[in-house]
Amino acid sequence: MRGILFVRLLFFSSIACIILGSIMYYQTITDNPPSFNEENDLLPSFHEASNQENDAVVENEKDDTDESSSLVDDKYLNFIIIGSGGISSILVGTLLSEIFKVTVLISLVSPLISRSKKSTDLLTRGRILGFVESNAGIHFSALRDFLGLANGVTAYHLQVLENKGTIISWKDGKLRRYAASHISITELDSVRNPIMGTRLAILEVLSNSGNVGLSNSEISKKLSISRQLMSYHILELKKYEYIHHEESSKRPKWKLTELGNKILKTSYSLEITDNF
User: Fold this and answer.
1) Domain parsing of the chain, residue ranges
2) CATH of range 189-274; options 1.10.10.10, 3.90.1680.10, 3.40.1550.10, 2.130.10.10
3) The predicted structure's pLDDT at residue 34
4) 172: helix, coil or strand?
5) Strand, coil or helix: what is 243?
6) Residue 9 neighbours by CB under 8 Å, 6+ apart
7) Band of the pLDDT at 36, cuts 50, 70, 90?
8) Closest listed residue to residue 3, CA positions, set 82, 69, 94, 88
9) Which of 73, 157, 231, 248 has its CA at 20 to 30 Å from residue 41's CA atom?
10) How far apart are CA 139 and CA 98, in angstroms?
11) Chain-wide mean pLDDT for the chain?
12) May I ask the CATH architecture of the domain 105-183?
């Protein structure tokens, strides 16, 4: 909420500065029109020798005028520069950060879209909700591109769904991710902290082994890692119930649990959407 208020304040203040500076510039031009002598300065140089005395008089008159108008000129230039800088900072922020882009869209574009409600709004909102439910953790740009929607439309409907408590969102670096509000705590934790690196590789290897499973030494050989490092990751995966083995076996073979399969698919889907 604070981010939305900040963007609106920055935007409208910048616009006000540009308008005020432009008005001051217009008044400066109308109050100090170019004199006849100033126009004569543009004539060819063969008049210079005969008009040196006139030029000296003109310079004295211009000095008085310049001193009175320089302060006004500086003020209108400062206002225009400040206003342009504010608008530029908003534009640069939208290019560098998806989170800031979403904030800008909600602040400036969503109010305009909300006033022009269409009969297709419910259909569009339903498409977005269905996609978020089936792709927990998807970020704004990927959602927009998958559904072929405009920035403003996507931001508006996501804001409506979040205000109704239908979906949730969170920051992930420069991205903003979304998920359905009824998602379980375990699944949400896996989405917010996806399996990566060596642990993801272990899950992939076990998934490829199917119901046969793999022992510690077999996993270690396939991934070319030390047994000590592999054992550490195995214990961590077991703690979260992503893998299991038969207790009665002397050389237990690890297999994926149902939760482990789900986590693996979630990690794949996040990897795919992050490439958009």
Assistant:
1) 2-96, 105-183, 189-274
2) 1.10.10.10
3) 55
4) strand
5) strand
6) none
7) very low
8) 94
9) 73
10) 9
11) 78
12) Orthogonal Bundle (1.10)
